[in-house]
Structure formats: C-alpha cells, structure tokens
Design a protein that fits this description.
GO terms for molecular function: kinase activity. This protein is mainly alpha-helical. Helix content is 91%, strand content 0%.
Length: 165
C-alpha cells in the first residue's frame, strides 16, 4: 500500500514538472507573440502616419494650386483640384488636420520625455548637493574638534612648560 502511494506521488511530481515546463514554454511563446504584436502595431502606426503625411502633402499642394491659380499637373489641361470631388477634398483636409494633431502629439510626448529626464537629472543633482553639504558639515565638525583638541594640547603643554620651569 505504501509502495503504491510512493509511485503515485512520484507520478504526480513528474506531472507537476511537465506542467511547469509547459507553463514556461507558454510564457516564452506568449512573450514572442507580444513582441511580434508590438512590432506590427508600430509598423501599422508608422504606415498610417506616412499615409496621413502624404495626404497632408496632397492637400497642401491643392491649397497652393488654388492660391496661385496655375495649371494642374495633368498635361496642362485643368487643375488637380478639378479632378477631386468636394468630399475627397474634405477628406484630405481632415487627413491634414489629423496629421498635424499626430505631429503635435509626438512633439508633446518628446517634450514630456525631455522634461522627465531633466527633472530626474535635477533631482539627482539636488540629492548630490545635499550629500556634499552634509559632507562639508561633517568636515567642519571634524575641523572644529581638531581645533579644540589642538587648543587643549597647546594649553596643556604651555601649563606643563610653565610648571616645569
């Protein structure tokens, strides 16, 4: 009966080890998949930003064409803005606005990161200043103690010299 319990216990321990190994393998696979997903999200974001940028450039070209009233890009026959419907022009204008917002958001994020880094540097500098001030104070105390000891020894030896003579 005890032998069967030991065998069962051993089998359970082996199964637990197998489960732990599978769990570790799953974690690794999940990590790889998360990295792949992050990479793909970044790629999609970059592609979307590029599309917005190109649409913004097209909208800007339309605006310049309308402002200058020069012939369009198609064999001098008409203007580029004549080829687009009002909805398409409006869509390009929205893309331009979205692109501007995206650029401004990126700039704000960079500025915030720079500000965070500078704040961390400032805190480190303040901490270092505090440590140096504490060190200076400790050195001042040591100097004062040495001066007191020197004065005591000077007075002691002066008194000893006076009494000896």
């Amino acid at each position: 009966w005890l032998e069967s319990i030991e065998v069962t216990k051993s089998a359970l321990q082996q199964k637990m080890l197998d489960i732990e190994n599978e769990k570790d393998l799953f974690r690794k696979q999940k990590g790889y998949l998360d990295e792949e997903l992050d990479f793909r999200k970044q790629s999609m974001d970059q592609a979307h930003k590029r599309i917005l940028e190109l649409e913004a450039m097209l909208f800007e070209a339309l605006q310049q064409e309308d402002a200058s009233r020069t012939p369009g890009l198609i064999k001098g026959e008409g203007r580029l803005s004549d080829l687009l419907t009002e909805e398409e022009k409006e869509e390009l204008r929205r893309a331009m606005d979205q692109w501007k917002r995206c650029v401004m958001c990126e700039l704000r994020e960079r500025d915030a990161q720079i500000l965070r880094e500078r704040m961390e540097l400032l805190q480190l500098t303040q901490q270092r200043n505090k440590e140096l001030e504490e060190s200076i104070e400790a050195q001042k105390r040591q100097i004062k103690e040495l001066e007191e000891k020197f004065l005591f020894l000077f007075l002691f030896f002066s008194l000893a010299f006076i009494l000896w003579s």
